[in-house]
Protein backbone atom coordinates (compact mmCIF):
# COMPACT_ATOMS: atom_id res chain seq x y z
CA UNK A 1 0.00 0.00 0.00
CA UNK A 2 2.76 2.46 0.99
CA UNK A 3 4.83 1.59 -2.03
CA UNK A 4 1.88 2.04 -4.40
CA UNK A 5 0.85 5.35 -2.79
CA UNK A 6 4.39 6.76 -2.46
CA UNK A 7 4.48 10.54 -2.89
CA UNK A 8 0.82 10.96 -1.84
CA UNK A 9 0.24 13.36 1.04
CA UNK A 10 -3.09 13.62 2.85
CA UNK A 11 -4.43 15.09 6.06
CA UNK A 12 -4.96 12.43 8.67
CA UNK A 13 -5.58 11.66 12.30
CA UNK A 14 -2.89 9.23 13.43
CA UNK A 15 -2.47 7.28 16.63
CA UNK A 16 0.29 5.04 17.93
CA UNK A 17 -1.14 1.79 19.28
CA UNK A 18 1.11 -0.25 21.50
CA UNK A 19 -0.07 -3.66 22.68
CA UNK A 20 -3.63 -2.79 21.64
CA UNK A 21 -3.72 0.55 23.49
CA UNK A 22 -3.51 4.11 22.21
CA UNK A 23 -0.21 5.67 23.35
CA UNK A 24 -0.27 8.93 21.38
CA UNK A 25 -2.64 10.65 18.98
CA UNK A 26 -2.37 13.62 16.67
CA UNK A 27 -3.69 15.22 13.51
CA UNK A 28 -1.49 16.37 10.63
CA UNK A 29 0.12 15.39 7.35
CA UNK A 30 0.57 11.78 6.34
CA UNK A 31 3.09 11.07 3.59
CA UNK A 32 3.34 7.68 1.91
CA UNK A 33 6.89 6.79 0.91
CA UNK A 34 8.65 3.83 -0.70
CA UNK A 35 9.80 2.67 2.74
CA UNK A 36 6.55 3.27 4.65
CA UNK A 37 4.91 6.24 6.36
CA UNK A 38 6.20 9.71 7.09
CA UNK A 39 4.78 13.22 7.49
CA UNK A 40 4.27 15.37 10.55
CA UNK A 41 1.47 13.22 12.01
CA UNK A 42 3.65 10.12 11.87
CA UNK A 43 6.68 11.93 13.28
CA UNK A 44 4.54 13.16 16.16
CA UNK A 45 3.46 9.67 17.23
CA UNK A 46 6.73 7.92 16.41
CA UNK A 47 8.44 8.56 19.77
CA UNK A 48 6.16 6.14 21.60
CA UNK A 49 6.48 3.56 18.84
CA UNK A 50 10.27 3.81 18.69
CA UNK A 51 10.60 3.44 22.46
CA UNK A 52 8.18 0.50 22.51
CA UNK A 53 9.96 -1.36 19.71
CA UNK A 54 13.60 -0.58 20.43
CA UNK A 55 13.81 -0.15 24.19
CA UNK A 56 10.87 -2.04 25.62
CA UNK A 57 11.21 -4.76 22.96
CA UNK A 58 7.47 -4.84 22.39
CA UNK A 59 6.38 -6.57 19.24
CA UNK A 60 2.85 -5.23 18.75
CA UNK A 61 3.04 -1.66 17.48
CA UNK A 62 0.53 -0.23 15.05
CA UNK A 63 -0.33 3.07 13.46
CA UNK A 64 -4.06 3.72 13.45
CA UNK A 65 -5.09 6.09 10.69
CA UNK A 66 -8.26 8.02 10.09
CA UNK A 67 -7.86 8.68 6.37
CA UNK A 68 -10.83 11.07 6.25
CA UNK A 69 -10.75 12.96 9.57
CA UNK A 70 -13.03 15.74 8.31
CA UNK A 71 -15.96 13.35 7.79
CA UNK A 72 -17.89 11.68 10.58
CA UNK A 73 -18.32 7.90 10.24
CA UNK A 74 -22.04 8.42 9.66
CA UNK A 75 -21.55 11.02 6.90
CA UNK A 76 -18.92 8.85 5.20
CA UNK A 77 -21.07 5.73 5.35
CA UNK A 78 -24.06 7.64 3.97
CA UNK A 79 -22.00 9.09 1.10
CA UNK A 80 -20.50 5.70 0.19
CA UNK A 81 -23.95 4.08 0.34
CA UNK A 82 -25.32 6.80 -1.94
CA UNK A 83 -22.50 6.20 -4.45
CA UNK A 84 -22.95 2.43 -4.36
CA UNK A 85 -26.71 2.77 -4.83
CA UNK A 86 -26.07 5.04 -7.81
CA UNK A 87 -23.96 2.29 -9.40
CA UNK A 88 -20.49 3.84 -8.98
CA UNK A 89 -17.57 1.56 -9.81
CA UNK A 90 -15.72 0.39 -6.69
CA UNK A 91 -12.53 2.03 -8.00
CA UNK A 92 -14.30 5.42 -8.00
CA UNK A 93 -15.93 5.20 -4.57
CA UNK A 94 -13.54 7.65 -2.86
CA UNK A 95 -13.31 9.97 -5.86
CA UNK A 96 -13.14 13.57 -4.66
CA UNK A 97 -12.61 12.43 -1.07
CA UNK A 98 -9.05 11.11 -1.41
CA UNK A 99 -6.42 11.50 -4.16
CA UNK A 100 -7.11 9.43 -7.28
CA UNK A 101 -4.46 6.80 -6.51
CA UNK A 102 -6.47 5.65 -3.47
CA UNK A 103 -9.25 4.40 -5.78
CA UNK A 104 -7.67 1.02 -6.52
CA UNK A 105 -6.47 0.53 -2.96
CA UNK A 106 -9.92 1.18 -1.49
CA UNK A 107 -11.56 -1.01 -4.15
CA UNK A 108 -9.47 -3.85 -2.76
CA UNK A 109 -11.03 -3.33 0.67
CA UNK A 110 -14.57 -4.03 -0.60
CA UNK A 111 -15.49 -7.36 1.01
CA UNK A 112 -16.12 -9.80 -1.87
CA UNK A 113 -18.54 -11.95 0.08
CA UNK A 114 -20.87 -9.05 0.96
CA UNK A 115 -23.37 -7.88 -1.65
CA UNK A 116 -25.58 -5.51 0.37
CA UNK A 117 -24.54 -1.91 -0.54
CA UNK A 118 -25.27 -0.54 2.95
CA UNK A 119 -23.12 -3.24 4.56
CA UNK A 120 -20.33 -2.59 2.05
CA UNK A 121 -20.56 1.17 2.74
CA UNK A 122 -20.35 0.58 6.50
CA UNK A 123 -17.37 -1.79 6.11
CA UNK A 124 -15.51 0.61 3.82
CA UNK A 125 -16.24 3.57 6.07
CA UNK A 126 -14.90 1.64 9.06
CA UNK A 127 -11.74 0.72 7.11
CA UNK A 128 -11.16 4.33 6.05
CA UNK A 129 -11.75 5.72 9.55
CA UNK A 130 -9.72 3.05 11.34
CA UNK A 131 -6.95 1.74 9.11
CA UNK A 132 -4.34 -0.18 11.11
CA UNK A 133 -0.84 -0.70 9.82
CA UNK A 134 1.66 -2.83 11.71
CA UNK A 135 4.94 -1.01 12.36
CA UNK A 136 7.97 -3.22 11.78
CA UNK A 137 10.61 -0.59 12.51
CA UNK A 138 11.70 3.01 12.38
CA UNK A 139 14.28 4.77 10.20
CA UNK A 140 16.80 4.24 12.97
CA UNK A 141 19.36 6.27 14.83
CA UNK A 142 20.84 8.09 11.83
CA UNK A 143 17.52 9.66 10.89
CA UNK A 144 16.11 10.17 14.39
CA UNK A 145 15.37 13.78 15.32
CA UNK A 146 16.14 13.37 18.99
CA UNK A 147 17.61 10.91 21.42
CA UNK A 148 14.75 10.65 23.90
CA UNK A 149 16.93 9.59 26.79
CA UNK A 150 20.13 10.43 28.58
CA UNK A 151 21.09 11.57 32.06
CA UNK A 152 18.11 11.47 34.42
CA UNK A 153 16.94 15.08 34.85
CA UNK A 154 16.00 14.39 38.48
CA UNK A 155 19.74 14.01 39.19
CA UNK A 156 20.43 17.57 38.02
CA UNK A 157 19.90 20.82 39.89
CA UNK A 158 17.45 22.76 37.75
CA UNK A 159 18.80 26.23 38.63
CA UNK A 160 22.32 25.63 37.21
CA UNK A 161 22.03 22.24 35.52
CA UNK A 162 24.82 20.93 37.73
CA UNK A 163 25.01 17.28 38.71
CA UNK A 164 23.63 16.59 42.18
CA UNK A 165 26.32 13.91 42.61
CA UNK A 166 29.42 15.55 41.12
CA UNK A 167 29.92 19.24 41.70
CA UNK A 168 31.41 21.14 38.78
CA UNK A 169 29.79 18.80 36.23
CA UNK A 170 27.15 20.55 34.10
CA UNK A 171 24.79 19.24 31.44
CA UNK A 172 22.89 20.83 28.55
CA UNK A 173 20.74 19.76 25.61
CA UNK A 174 20.06 16.22 24.58
CA UNK A 175 22.58 14.66 26.95
CA UNK A 176 19.78 15.10 29.49
CA UNK A 177 16.63 13.01 29.43
CA UNK A 178 14.52 15.98 28.35
CA UNK A 179 12.56 16.20 25.15
CA UNK A 180 9.95 18.47 23.67
CA UNK A 181 7.42 17.99 20.91
CA UNK A 182 8.25 18.79 17.29
CA UNK A 183 8.26 22.51 16.51
CA UNK A 184 11.54 23.96 17.79
CA UNK A 185 11.20 22.97 21.43
CA UNK A 186 14.28 20.75 21.37
CA UNK A 187 16.47 23.42 19.83
CA UNK A 188 15.08 25.97 22.31
CA UNK A 189 15.94 23.58 25.13
CA UNK A 190 19.46 23.03 23.74
CA UNK A 191 20.14 26.77 23.53
CA UNK A 192 18.49 27.75 26.81
CA UNK A 193 20.07 24.92 28.79
CA UNK A 194 23.42 25.65 27.14
CA UNK A 195 23.30 29.23 28.42
CA UNK A 196 22.28 28.09 31.89
CA UNK A 197 24.92 25.37 32.16
CA UNK A 198 27.55 27.68 30.67
CA UNK A 199 26.78 30.36 33.24
CA UNK A 200 26.89 27.77 36.00
CA UNK A 201 30.22 26.39 34.81
CA UNK A 202 31.68 29.91 34.47
CA UNK A 203 30.63 30.71 38.03
CA UNK A 204 32.36 27.60 39.34
CA UNK A 205 31.34 24.42 41.18
CA UNK A 206 28.68 24.28 43.85
CA UNK A 207 29.67 26.04 47.03
CA UNK A 208 32.53 27.91 45.34
CA UNK A 209 30.51 30.06 42.92
CA UNK A 210 31.73 33.52 41.98
CA UNK A 211 29.36 36.13 40.63
CA UNK A 212 29.39 36.44 36.85
CA UNK A 213 29.39 40.13 35.99
CA UNK A 214 29.77 40.19 32.24
CA UNK A 215 27.73 37.30 30.91
CA UNK A 216 29.32 34.18 29.48
CA UNK A 217 33.06 33.97 29.41
C1 LIG B 1 17.27 15.75 11.18
C2 LIG B 1 16.95 16.50 12.46
C3 LIG B 1 15.98 17.44 12.46
C4 LIG B 1 15.69 18.15 13.66
N1 LIG B 1 14.71 19.09 13.62
C5 LIG B 1 14.44 19.79 14.72
C6 LIG B 1 13.48 20.84 14.69
O1 LIG B 1 12.89 21.13 13.66
N2 LIG B 1 13.23 21.50 15.84
C7 LIG B 1 13.86 21.21 17.00
O2 LIG B 1 13.60 21.86 18.02
N3 LIG B 1 14.78 20.23 17.06
C8 LIG B 1 15.10 19.52 15.97
N4 LIG B 1 16.03 18.54 16.01
C9 LIG B 1 16.65 18.24 17.32
C10 LIG B 1 17.73 19.25 17.66
O3 LIG B 1 18.55 19.48 16.53
C11 LIG B 1 18.55 18.70 18.84
O4 LIG B 1 17.68 18.45 19.94
C12 LIG B 1 19.62 19.67 19.28
O5 LIG B 1 20.46 20.02 18.22
C13 LIG B 1 20.43 19.05 20.42
O6 LIG B 1 21.48 19.93 20.73
P1 LIG B 1 22.68 19.43 21.57
O7 LIG B 1 23.65 20.59 21.65
O8 LIG B 1 22.23 18.84 22.86
O9 LIG B 1 23.34 18.23 20.77
P2 LIG B 1 23.97 18.24 19.32
O10 LIG B 1 23.40 19.32 18.46
O11 LIG B 1 23.88 16.82 18.85
O12 LIG B 1 25.48 18.62 19.59
C14 LIG B 1 26.38 17.69 20.15
C15 LIG B 1 27.75 18.03 19.59
O13 LIG B 1 28.72 17.24 20.27
C16 LIG B 1 29.64 16.76 19.33
N5 LIG B 1 30.26 15.57 19.92
C17 LIG B 1 29.74 14.34 20.06
N6 LIG B 1 30.61 13.53 20.67
C18 LIG B 1 31.71 14.27 20.92
C19 LIG B 1 32.96 13.99 21.54
N7 LIG B 1 33.23 12.78 22.03
N8 LIG B 1 33.84 14.99 21.62
C20 LIG B 1 33.56 16.22 21.16
N9 LIG B 1 32.40 16.53 20.57
C21 LIG B 1 31.50 15.58 20.45
C22 LIG B 1 28.81 16.46 18.12
O14 LIG B 1 29.61 16.44 16.96
C23 LIG B 1 27.87 17.67 18.11
O15 LIG B 1 28.42 18.77 17.43
C24 LIG B 1 16.37 17.85 14.85
C25 LIG B 1 17.36 16.88 14.83
C26 LIG B 1 17.66 16.22 13.65
C27 LIG B 1 18.74 15.18 13.65
- Counted beta strands: 7
Distance between the ends: 56 Å
How many helices? The count is: 5
Over all CA atoms, what is the radius of gyration?
25 Å
Number of domains: 2
Query: Which percent range describes the beta-strand content?
Result: 15-25%
Structural notes for this entry:
By secondary structure, this protein is of the alpha+beta class. The protein folds into 2 domains: 1-144, no CATH class; 153-203, no CATH class. 31% of the residues lie in helices and 18% in strands. The chain has 5 helices and 7 strands. It has helices at 40-55, 73-85, 102-107, 117-129, 185-203, and strands at residues 9-18, 21-32, 37-38, 61-66, 131-134, 156-157, 162-163. The strands form 2 sheets. A 5-stranded antiparallel beta sheet has the order 3-2-1-4-5. A two-stranded antiparallel sheet has the order 6-7. It is elongated. The model has no long low-confidence stretch (mean pLDDT 93). It binds flavin-adenine dinucleotide. Residues 145-146, 173-174, 184-187, 190 line the site of flavin-adenine dinucleotide.
Amino acid sequence: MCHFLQGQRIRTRAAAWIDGRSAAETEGDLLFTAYGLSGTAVLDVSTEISIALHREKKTRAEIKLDLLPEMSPEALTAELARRLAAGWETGDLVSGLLPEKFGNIVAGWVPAEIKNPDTIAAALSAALKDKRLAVHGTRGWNEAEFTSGGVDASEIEPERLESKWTSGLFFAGEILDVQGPRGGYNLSWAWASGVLAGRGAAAGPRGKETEIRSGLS
